[in-house]
Amino acid sequence: MKKTKTLLLASVICAPWTFALAQGQYEDLVSLDAELMALAEPDVVDDVPDLGVEAIEAQRLRLERIQRRLRDFNVNGWPVSRQVDYLVVWAKLNDLVFDHRVMRPWAKDPLLYLYQVSRVPYAEVPIAADGRDKFVTQLKAVPGLMIQAQTNLSEPVGELAKLAVYHLENFDGVGQRQPHREKPPEGTIGWFEDLCARLQTHDAALVVDCRQAASAVKDYRDWLRENLNEMPDSAAIGVDNLNWYLKHVRVVPYTVDDLQLLGEREFHRYRFNYIVDRNKNKELPELTLTRSAEQHLKRTRDAENKIRSIVVEQDLLTIPDYMPDEFETDTYWSPRGATNRHFWEELQFRDALNNHIHASIPGHRFDTLIRDRLDNPIRRNWQETARAEGWGTYLEELLLQAGITDDNPRARELFDIALIKRGSRIFAETSMHSGQMSLAEANAYMIDWVPFMEENLGRYDLANYLRRPGAGSMYILGKTQIEQLVSERAFQFGDKFDLGDFHDEFLSKGVIPVTLIRWEMTGHDNEVRALWPDVVGRPYPSAD
User: How far is CA 342 from the centre of its chain?
Assistant: First the structure.
């Protein structure tokens, strides 16, 4: 049996357990963080991630040991920046603890195993020589993964199992990174059949392996169907668990009730803006849809040039020299976009600005390149959702207020719609996890209230929020936290406040909870003081 580790940190893993206890220094925290990040990656046995009972139990026991070691650190007197790092490590740890205590995806989530194989048949045939070994390894691993799924899923959830069956049998209408087909193959099963047919013509030596993989995913579908009636239907985790997650993992001083109140207020504010903008623009022609890949590329490049210009002209932030001259888009052109578009294509194929701001520059891709160059290894190896998605969403309204659509008022409506969509997620997500709505009901709600919203993208998003609670709510929550921080820093600096300097300093802190960035930037510890005893399990320390 071949056993490897997807992330090898032998010098950390082999360090004596007593080292951090004896020293309790910052360097020990860095080592412990590296050990934790390595532990988050499963062992790989015979090219298949090991999510079996023994492996999961071994991970849980090591998490308990790391938890004890973290609690034994004496951080009194550490500077705020290092106490922030200490809480970041706790958030990383609590994320894994929450998986073991509540989510248990290896035992509950059929999509976990499906998503590990679903992109294998997207491979371009003939297989390129430099990628052949990797492809063959992935293809041969499919049957083992499907067998492991049926073994490990001891408590599968019906809502997630039905989604897995749907994706196995149907094109999901989103097609994220799928190769274009005039008529898309029907789900993962269809894609494996498509792959086998292409290999038969161009690489017959792999046909047997492909057919075994195709048979394995069909068996998985059949197994899920046969057991559906015995599965609990709802994937809801309950309000208490979601509140624990918000506090211990996202490190935010808010409850589910707070989120719903915030979401309702922001959702209706964005709808109000949309109504006013539509009324103001009613005599203007509607935006025209993109009709070709060339036109989509040109619109994307024009959008990026416009973004860069306004960022530079208004000194909104520094664009480092190491940034690429161009960023790729997050909404890829597909010829089916001419007749059958999902929600983001409806927006992006009318105007490329909104999504490119959020996902590329100065959003996620830009943000990630800055994070990857941080000297701090604890922050360099973490991307917290409220901070990441909150920043992307904050930028949308920032650039809107900065005037990026002044020469094209109709494009402003698309920004409104994107924010309405993000606002709607809070009610949809919290209602699913409180048991008030099924995924289908939450999707129907969004379709009713959000312009251009449709079933496919709604299903795609909501499935992710069922599988990772809080993720949908973090866009608006993180955005409002950043807006508050801007206001507080402007108050502290008075006439000397510079928005561009603020953004540069904010980005330099890493993609960690905004609650912690606020503490480090302003010195205000009221939120952290309230959260610390729950997150760490000890009283809040002094910070000399």
Answer: 19
Report the distance separating Cα 215 and Cα 199, nearest Å: 16
What is the model's pLDDT at position 131?
92
Map tokens 């040991």 to a residue: 65
Helix (H, G, I), strand (E, B) or coil at 333: coil
DSSP at 454: -
What digits encode the pLDDT tens for the residues 297-353? 999 999 999 999 999 999 999 999 999 999 998 888 888 777 889 999 999 999 999
The answer to whether the beta carbons of residues 376 and 359 sit under 8 Å apart is no
DSSP string, 481-494: HHHHHHHHHHHHHG
Helix axes 256-280, 409-433, angle to 10 degrees: 160
User: Taking 90 as the threshold, does the pLDDT of residue 221 lie above it?
Assistant: yes
Structure token pair of residue 129:
């020589």
Strand order in the sheet with 48-49: 3-5, 43-45, 48-49
Q: How many Cβ atoms sit within 10 Å of the Cβ of residue 493?
A: 12
Of residues 339, 330, 405, 406, the one with CA closest to residue 364: 330
Average pLDDT value for the chain? 93
The gap from C-alpha 321 to its chain's centroid, in whole angstroms, comes to 27
Please count the CA atoms within 13 angstroms of the CA of 154 that sit on its side-chain side.
8
CB contact at 8 A, 155 and 108: yes
The H-assigned helical ranges of 203-238 are 207-227
Looking at residue 331, its pLDDT comes to 82
Number of Cβ atoms within 10 Å of the Cβ of 74: 10
Q: Residue 383, SS3?
A: strand
In whole angstroms, what separates CA 272 from the centre of its chain?
A: 28
Alpha carbon distance 527, 529 (integer Å): 5
Asked if the peptide bond before residue 362 counts as cis, ω within 30 degrees of 0, the response is: yes
* pLDDT (mean) for 458-477: 95
Return the closest-CA partner of residue 197 out of 181, 219, 174, 221. Answer: 181
Residue 44's SS3 state is strand
Which residues partner with 5 through β-bridges? 43
| Cβ(142)–Cβ(117) below 8 Å | yes
